[in-house]
Request: fold
Amino acid sequence: MVSLRERKRSETRQRISDCATRLFEQRGFESVTLADVAAAAEVSVKTVVNYFGAKEDLFFDAEPAVLDGLVAAIADRGDASPTAALRPLVVNGPILSGPCTWDVVDDAMWEAMRTFAACERDSPTLTTRRAAILQSWLAPLGEASGSTAWAAVATGVLIVRHSIVQEGLLTGCSPATVRRRLHDTAGAALDALERGFER
Reply:
């Protein structure tokens, strides 16, 4: 059972994250300070830093859960190949390793994703951090799959996936179009990955 203290900590963390996201989307990542986030969330700057080590961590606060989902799927794959375990997380929904599938995407969700993607694209800091995040996934994916070589190529597939979705969002494509491009291009990359690491 979750204690009252833990629940309050979780609520505070979520409030800070939500306030930061709204500010980033309204004003751009580079224009928002930790003090701005703290004021919006009605906490101190020290509290923000205690929950999130840096401003970039506020923007990418969901990425640890994404990685956990990828690692769990690969580690718990049973007799399936690592690529077979990875495939649905890459192509079955608009968000990598996310809980929703393409058929539940509505206009409001797609527009929110477009705003988030534009915020990331317009910030050199976030673009650099995205590359560092994906690079940092190589070791845990290698450990889960049992192959650093597989993980290196799989990370490349994840980079391609991110590029396809981000470009589709920013150029005004529909979810159906992005879904098709993702299945065609990332799907082909996954097919090649599967062939390259056949057992």
Observations:
- Residues 155 and 188 are 15 Å apart (CA to CA).
- The radius of gyration is 18 Å.
- The chain has eleven helices and no strands.
- The longest helix spans residues 4-27.
